[in-house]
Amino acid sequence: MSAPGGPDFSGCRLLASASGRSGFAVGVDGERAGGLYALFVSPDEQEATADQLMVMALGLGANHLVMHADPILDYWFRQYGFEPAGQVPKEVTQAGDGDLVYMIRSEQALEQLAPTAEPGARPCRPHDECLRCGVPVTEEVRGHESIGGYGCRRCGCISVYGMLTLEPRIALLASPETTRVTWGMYLDGRGEQTIEVAGWVGVMPHLHRHFEEHGIEPWAILGQLFVERPYRTLADAPDQFTIAHLYSLDGNKRLLQELVGHIRNPNEIRRILAQRLGRGLASWEIRTVSYMVRGANE
After folding, report:
1. What is the side-by-side order of every strand in the sheet holding 179-188?
2. Whole-structure pTM value
3. What would the pLDDT profile of 41-77 be if each residue is shown by its tens digit?
4. What are the tens digits of pLDDT across the range 122-173?
């Protein structure tokens, strides 16, 4: 439930810290599924609280978020497998929001995290020295007045607090005209098969659940593919569309970007992709482009 005029957390599960002063929401239904919303850590909490809450959120399926642009906060989220997917358009934000970044979680979450503060040591509020190694703090979180903390150059300790992710008002509008899904492909006696999962996520758990629910014994798992479409449902799909086939620079990931109409100008294709992916486009290579008509190839 939500207070009148306040954030709308319908379709979300809300959790709080032991003290009740901090908490977050994770989307569990519909288009909110997987969103990490309003992750707030009180400056009066212990310095390890942010990490404890993040571990809880990941356990509930959090896989995308919107944060204030800040290099230390960016690195803190990267520890948990999140990567920048683009800048939130200015027309989506409101006065006071500042620069915002949309992040998605990689299907291969990092296992080795940078050192974090020890539980129970001291509250998060601003400090002049690192809790872990005691050296003077030189790198502070300054991306927005609603967040604070520091990153230690010597030991790598990161302490963050405040409104670390935004509420659904922004997160749901971060990419207002596109839908992101992941395909999981496998081979069985009927040939090549595909399942579709909302968001850009690791598809293996979904494939195994699909196999169990339908009694399928796959011959082989063929992999996964990220897809972004310029419409919400297949009923809204355009009659003609362009597909840009992207590969990650390490060659391990594939991404299909669908664009409305037949776009022949490669510079225009790159402009649209840069608008969708922001700085994340630098991690991808456009290898081929194909032109489609609904129901048939051109």
Report:
1. 191-198, 179-188, 220-229, 254-260, 240-248, 284-293, 296-297
2. 0.57
3. 998 888 788 989 999 998 888 888 888 888 888 889 9
4. 455 566 677 667 778 767 777 788 888 888 877 778 888 899 998 876 555 4
pLDDT tens profile 102-121 = 888 765 544 434 444 444 45
Q: Name the residue among 74, 75, 65, 136 with its Cα closest to residue 103.
A: 65
Structure tokens at 25: 């929401």
Task: Please check whether residue 137 is in contact with residue 123, taking contact to mean a CB–CB distance below 8 angstroms.
Answer: no
End-to-end Cα, the chain, rounded Å: 48
**DSSP for the chain?**
---TTS---TTEEEEE-TTSS-EEEEE-SGGGTTBEEEEEE-TTSBTTHHHHHHHHHHHTT--EEEEE--HHHHHHHHTTTEEEEEEPPTTT--TT--SEEEEEE-SS--SSPPPBPPTTS-BSS--SB-TTT-PBP-EE--S-TTEEEEE-TTT--EEEEEE-S--HHHHTTSSTT-EEEEEEEEEETTEEEEEEEESS---HHHHHHHHHHHT---SEEEEEEEEEESSSSGGG--SEEEEEEEEETTSS-EEEEEEES----HHHHHHHHHHHHGGGGGGEEEEEEEEEETTEE-
